[in-house]
UniProtKB/TrEMBL annotation:
Residues 81-309 form the SHC SH2 domain. Pfam families: Beta_helix, SHCBP_N. Keywords: Cytoplasm, Cytoskeleton. Residues 432-551 form the Right handed beta helix domain. Its main location: cytoplasm. This is Right handed beta helix domain-containing protein. GO terms for biological process: fibroblast growth factor receptor signaling pathway. GO terms for cellular component: spindle. Residues 1-53 are annotated as: Disordered. PANTHER family: SHC SH2 DOMAIN-BINDING PROTEIN 1, SHC SH2-DOMAIN BINDING PROTEIN 1-RELATED. InterPro entries: Beta_helix, Pectin_lyas_fold, Pectin_lyase_fold/virulence, SHCBP-like_N, SHCBP1-like.
């Protein structure tokens, strides 16, 4: 996300910010910090200590011919150094409209006004210049060329005459962000170098063109924008964000920037007193462009927020790194890949008699031997089989299963272990049409996205063990997962993450010692349907959060009662408020003109009224759906059948499989989460169905997608046991 050297991220312990105080104050501050350097080890006080008249910053040599002097090394500051500088010294509690003023005030205190040298840096040249004056309000410096000229050019010829002409064209004023302070051992220019680094970093990685026009200008800009963007920058730098999500963020950022430029150009071209039809059309087009831009900004905020980034994830680029399928071999043969670093004669004989001869002795099969399971799987074509002999295998890269193959361990899961070292987005990715994995144990280290991700196709897993470190098994939209008799533990996120539109069947599994057991995601788009879920006879226990948690939007409702009656240990509701603008506020932001075109205003108000009437009707539909759900559902209190009766013809077909009597004496407090989960999923699906139909009716669609409107949600949840989960069996997170 930037050009920061991650390897050196922990070396520098000097921060940016405070202007150099007098020696008495600085000495006292230094003594205080020495006594309590654990609480504040930023190193700012060392810059203020006159007893050490030397620099505390490192130097970095410029590449090339070596004719240029060294500059201060400031580009690899660690997170807390930038955080402290922006929060305490540069921005404080300013509003977004006050950022420029606060920045100017900070620079006036930290940057020397004249008589210092710097490299004027650009993509094509570096030139040594002397700063003779600083225009703080314009964030520019007046410079003079140092003679004889010292420069380095990249891809162009640069002479003294051409450089002088370029400076004359700019009135000898260059942006402060383009200046790299020349290294000086005296320490007199440390604060200047650090202040310019913070300025440069802020406008490159933190500031957005649209921030100054933000409708939430009354709120603290640092808390709302700077801190989350700064954390995201360092999360990306330290490989804590999946590569697909990083690509999605940069794509959204570029699209939002382009849309804002188009919107600003259109807005500036409108006349305040014109009654022309062209201005009316431009006004409506500008409104649509504004709404599109607000949608992009909302997606950016979701990715910037660590919590929403976790619970919502990303959809657009989730499969951009998928390997293409190979299909069948041209020869028509199928290969049995035997993976074994070394094995005994007895094991090989047993493998021959129990597996190879009975199942794969026909002429269409041949056998290949491998030492690395990743190499064996990458060499598979459709219909191949991979058999792993007992052993502990270590892989350093992700394993992608792109074709329909069978991967199985010959022995118990604890005897056939695959352990991943090194960082990567996922451990195992499945994209094949039908993939089967059995009798294996996976041990995860340093993965970012999860131990296993089903991006598309169908994956059947049986008798596997997953020892997670970050997140667990992920089932993406339109993917299918059948997970039977598996054991999953250790996830710092959810053990199983289920995305909208997927099919997930969990039978007889143990999910324990994770943050949450199962996480069901419901995106804000009403066209995203809930997954088809089967959960039977699973034991979900000892998770620090909930056994099962449903993430869904709150629809902007200020106060929302849960659809399932509260019972101890079963359900809690968490809400994250999001700001929403009114039509009047949107119009004021859209039309920053002295006057308002009357016709365009009428068109705008009509459109806004239609939108808000639609929102009201959707809220009414949601309320009716909840009421129908509450009246229509009946629950057998002892874990028996759940019956859903929906009265209107337009309601969503919902299949709820009824559970028979539970065998064995299982206390009711361990099974009460089954009914709560079923009710919540059914109620949420009904509300989504009403939203879909209302949207179609309001838009007066010429053709309705009957497949979409006839989508059904299949729910089969019974026999599960929820034990000793920190927050209860089932909860809902509203965002």
């Amino acid at each position: 996300m930037g050009d920061v050297d991650a390897g050196a991220a922990g070396e520098l312990r000097v921060t940016a910010a405070e202007p150099i105080a007098d020696s008495n104050t600085a000495s006292k501050e230094h003594e205080d910090d020495v006594e309590d350097d654990v609480n504040d080890d930023s190193g700012t006080d060392e810059l203020s200590n006159d007893d050490k008249p030397c620099t505390h910053l490192q130097r970095v040599a410029q590449g090339g011919s070596g004719s240029l002097p060294d500059v201060f090394q400031t580009s690899h500051l660690v997170f807390y150094e930038r955080f402290k500088a922006y929060q305490d010294y540069m921005l404080g509690d300013c509003k977004s409209s006050e950022v420029k003023a606060f920045t100017v005030d900070y620079l006036e205190k930290a940057v020397e006004p004249s008589d210092w040298r710097a490299l004027w840096h650009s993509d094509v040249f570096d030139v040594l210049v002397q700063v003779v004056d600083v225009d703080y309000k314009e964030l520019r410096a007046k410079v003079e060329l140092v003679l004889p000229m010292q420069c380095e050019a990249r891809g162009c010829e640069l002479t003294e005459e051409s450089t002088t002409a370029l400076l004359d064209a700019t009135l000898n004023r260059v942006p402060l962000q383009d200046l790299l302070v020349v290294y000086d051992e005296s320490g007199d220019f440390d604060q200047t170098a650090l202040a310019l680094e913070h300025l440069r970093f802020f406008y490159k990685h933190i500031w957005r063109k649209w921030d100054e026009e933000d409708e939430e200008d009354e709120f603290d800009y640092f808390v709302r924008c700077v801190e989350p963007r700064l954390r995201l920058y360092y999360d990306v730098l330290e490989d804590r964000v999946p590569a697909g999500l990083v690509a999605e963020y940069h794509s959204l950022l570029e699209r939002c920037s382009d849309t804002f430029c188009e919107f600003s150009s259109l807005r500036n071209g409108l006349s305040s007193d014109s009654e022309s039809e062209l201005d009316n059309v431009s006004m409506v087009e500008g409104l649509r462009m504004y709404e599109h831009m607000e949608g992009l900004k909302r997606k950016l905020r979701i990715i910037e927020n660590p919590l929403l980034r976790y619970v919502l994830g990303y959809k657009m680029n989730c499969g951009q790194h998928m390997c293409s399928t190979k299909g069948e071999r041209p020869s028509g043969l199928r290969v049995v890949h035997i993976v074994s670093a070394s094995t005994s004669v007895h094991v090989l004989h047993s493998l021959m008699t129990e597996k190879l001869l009975p199942l794969y002795s026909s002429k269409e099969f041949e056998v290949q031997f491998h030492c690395d399971p990743a190499v064996a799987i990458s060499g598979c074509y459709e219909g191949d089989v991979v058999i792993l002999c007992p052993g502990h295998y270590t892989v350093t890269s992700s394993i992608t299963v792109a074709d329909s193959i069978l991967v199985e361990g010959y022995g118990l899961p604890d005897e056939v272990v695959i352990e991943k070292r090194n960082k990567g987005d996922t451990f195992v990715e499945s994209t094949g049409d039908v993939v089967k994995i059995s009798n294996l144990k996976f041990i995860q280290h340093d993965a970012i996205e999860g131990i296993l991700c089903v991006r598309q196709g169908k994956l059947e897993m049986e008798n596997c063990v997953f020892q997670c470190e970050t997140t667990g098994v992920i089932v993406r939209t339109a993917a299918q997962l059948l997970m039977n008799m598996c054991d999953l533990y250790g996830s710092k996120g959810a053990g199983v993450e289920i995305y909208p539109g997927s099919v997930c069947s969990l039978t007889g599994n143990g999910i324990h010692h994770c943050q949450d057991g199962v996480l069901i995601k419901d995106f804000a788009d009403e066209m995203d349907v809930l997954p088809k879920i089967t959960m039977v006879n699973n034991v979900i226990h000892n998770n620090s959060g909930y056994g099962v948690i449903l993430v869904k939007p709150d629809g902007g409702v200020v106060e929302q009662q849960p659809t399932v009656a509260e019972s101890p240990g079963v359900k809690h509701v968490h809400k994250l408020q999001t700001g929403r603008s009114t039509p009047e506020l949107e119009y004021r932001r859209f039309s920053s003109l002295s006057g308002v075109n009357v016709v365009a205003y009428v068109l705008f108000r009509a459109l806004c009224c239609g939108v808000w009437i639609l929102a009201a009707s959707l809220t009414d539909a949601e309320g009716r759906a909840e009421q129908d759900q509450t009246c229509g559902g009946s629950v057998n209190g002892e874990g028996g059948a759940v019956k859903e009766e929906v009265g209107t013809k337009s309601d969503l077909p919902i299949i709820v499989e009824e559970a028979g009597p539970v065998e064995g004496a299982v206390p009711s407090e361990f099974t009460e989460g089954n009914d709560a989960l079923k009710r919540e999923l059914v109620a949420t699906s009904v509300r989504k169905q009403h939203l879909q139909r209302r949207r179609v009716m309001e838009l007066r669609a010429m053709q309705v997608d009957e497949d979409l409107l006839s989508q059904e949600m299949f729910v089969s949840i019974h026999g599960n046991q929820f034990r000793r989960n920190g927050k209860g069996s089932f909860g809902t997170f509203l965002y």
